[in-house]
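From the shared-data thread, chain only:
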Amino acid sequence: MEHETHDHHAGHGGGGTASWGMAAKATLHCLTGCAIGEVLGMIIGTALGWGNAPTMVLAIALAFFFGYALTLRGVLAAGLDFASAFKVALAADTLSILVMEIVDNGVLLLVPGAMDAHLDDALFWGALAFAFLVAFLVTTPVNKWLIGRGKGHAVVHRYHH
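Structure, as tokens:
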């Protein structure tokens, strides 16, 4: 991309570093999109009587969709055309969403009974909250590393003033 300047980020730790606060904010943004998509996917899969595997696939697909959509909304508001905004969203969020989805779905698979819990079951919501917490803790250092290298959400911040 021709927007590859790093001068704009000198105030964010400089020297190829990023603050933990910035990384946590980027991760929380990612978690929001993932949570919306996953819960919606689980609701739809449950309502349609689907099994765990197709429901999980739908939930993961929707997590990516909503994760990208939240970034697109902000970048489009900054004035980018859709094609450029879409490229920014892909660059900013793909690794973060991927790590978050692997971790939180992995945790859900490891929690006894979580995959068979229903939406009206405390185990479902407790396991999901725990999985999101673990995913947040694992993904935040990933985002810190990405931002410190001018990647991930650092790409998005170029369009926020």
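Confidence is low (pLDDT under 50) at residues 1-15.
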